[in-house]
Amino acid sequence: MAGNDEKTADDIRQLRVLVEEQASHIAGLQERISSPNAGRSARRAGWRRGLVLLAVAGALVIAASGSAVAGSTRAGLGGTATVGAGGVLTGCYETKTTVKFLANPVRILDTRDGTGAGFAGTRPAGATTAVQTSGVIPGAVAIIGNVTVTNGQSGYLTIYPGGTRPLASSINFQPGWNIANHIQSGLASDGTFQIYNVVSADILFDATAGVYPVSKGLRLIDPATESCASDETQTTWNQTGAAGPAGPAGTAGAAGPAGTAGATGAAGATGAQGPPGLSGYHMVSVAFTATHGIYTSKSAGCNAGEKILGGGAFTSDTTSLDLRESYPNLPFTIFRPPPLPPIFVPAGWNVTIGNFSSTDLSATVYATCANAS
Description:
By secondary structure, the chain is mostly beta strands. Helix content is 12%, strand content 43%. Helix 1 (2-33) runs antiparallel to helix 2. It starts with a helix and ends with a strand.
């Protein structure tokens, strides 16, 4: 790992030198495109704003802002360059790779216990297993490691990045062999590679290093007369484009805390007088004996002038007693021939109970009474 850090530091030192050289070329360019008049200083300041050189972790980037001077003047920044309308620059850069070894090998696949495979078990003949590497070598474009085969028949494995499987073997084996082989394979964009087994077998893979892209060696060109080399990539920089469409609205935030309670309102007007109610609620109970073999009737009466509100009966034996009737009676008067005085019967509650047992049983009739005023 120390060797990789030293290489990265050396790359940054070299890029700093390149930035200083290209900054000097830009100064010469702005002298050539500036006319000897009062606006010369303003144009020079415009070029300083127009081109920004950035060296970031071994990669060189040149960005052109909207203040770059448009025209057809050429600048010798590692080659000829044309600044087109709108401050467009065209350049070529190399993309190389670097290998970063892990501190220790990491097993990312073991079909025997299911590591990296989703389930444990020998892979059947003709199976293809996708192996994920992003948890071990994130951002890598290729993997270096060792593949091991055990519990297999006579056959081979094919290891490849994805897409169409090549007609080639990465390791061959015979029955009873426990065999390993050094492997280098490219990775798909999601960080996976594929292992195809032509016969059933258990497969192990230990990652030892990742291969990472490194872009550097930028040079500007005139696209009308020049092109990038076969091992270079062409790119352009332009003014800031139009603003993109607004993104979707974010999710609603959590509800805020409840506010303080408001002041108590004024008292409303007094409502209308309600109708007279009842008072003096009380219950009248009368115990009696329900004679066996017959129906017995009994009443619980209210006081004179009271109203009956409800009533009922209670018995200790619900299996042998039959509550035949339970009803209120209104107050009434029994008139008798003179000189006998009339008899006033107050309001009350009447029940009739049948006793079907072999003995007399106790019962109680209830009446709920209240004053009428």
